[in-house]
Amino acid sequence: MSAEITGGLIQMTAHTVRTGAALALIRAGVAVAALFGFLAVCAAASRRTEHKRRYVLIFLAFALAGAVMAAGGAKQPMRKVLYCCADGPVDLQMVATRYDIVDVDGKLLTLMER
Question: What is the pTM of this model?
Fold first, then answer.
């Protein structure tokens, strides 16, 4: 039996993290909602009455769209990050068939599920 086959991984911890695209969508949605919410409040407090109601409704619609963007980003699936310790020699190509290898630091492997 080969030494590469007898080695294994010991899972130490696992965390779920948001993807970069989900974080960007959440941040953009919050920024849009805050900006247009502020503009709706400013339009409502304005002294001009010609198109006051129209502007408030438009700004509130965009603020609601921003909130929907943020909620959509929060509902996106998260990825699992595993921190594993090598127990003996481990073939990284065998590990890479199932996991994305993020970092290798001596015996400590940081992996992401696909």
Answer: 0.74
Backbone angles phi, psi at 47, to 5 degrees: -85, -20
C-alpha Rg value of the chain to the nearest Å:
24
Q: How far apart are CA 86 and CA 3, in angstroms?
A: 13
Contact status, residue 2 vs residue 73, Cβ threshold 8 Å: no
pLDDT in tens, 13-55: 899 999 999 999 999 999 999 999 999 999 999 988 888 999 9
The DSSP string of 24-78 is: HHHHHHHHHHHHHHHHHHHHHT-S--SSHHHHHHHHHHHHHHHHHHHHHHHTSPP
The region that residue 106 occupies, defined by phi over 0 for left and psi between -120 and 50 for alpha, beta otherwise, is left
